[in-house]
Design a protein that fits this description.
about 120 residues, 6 helices, about 0% strand, Cyt_c_biogenesis_Cmc1-like
Length: about 120
């Protein structure tokens, strides 16, 4: 009887998902995933008043919201743009992404599943 030999586990790539310490970014990470973190954080942490004002206007205006809510939409866009152009904020979001990716590569468990277990 022949025993199958288990392949050695690469300490830099424990789950076959890439090196957890690698900080290089792919194009999709730079152009899609990190901007998504920026957008979500800007809306919830820094522009929440503008988001709420725009949502209230849209609920009250219904079909006419395009014309009626221009002022609130402009305020929201201005707030979001300010954060999108902030290099320190962009770097902070990049570090958040890299930490989440490193955690995933180390554990093999996606963030949403790690949060569910807590």
């Amino acid at each position: 009887m022949k025993l199958e030999q288990q392949p050695a586990v690469d300490p830099l790539n424990p789950h076959g998902l890439g090196d957890p310490n690698d900080t290089r970014l792919r194009k999709v990470e730079r152009e899609v995933l990190i901007p998504k973190i920026m957008r979500d954080r800007a809306k919830t942490e820094f522009c929440s008043k503008e988001v709420a004002d725009f949502q209230e206007c849209c609920k009250a205006s219904s079909i006419l919201m395009v014309a009626t809510c221009r002022k609130q939409n402009s305020a929201l866009k201005e707030c979001l743009t300010q954060w999108y152009q902030n290099e320190a904020f962009k770097e902070e979001c990049k570090q958040i992404y890299l930490q989440e990716r490193a955690d995933y590569r180390s554990t093999g468990i996606p963030k949403k599943h790690r949060l569910e277990k807590l």
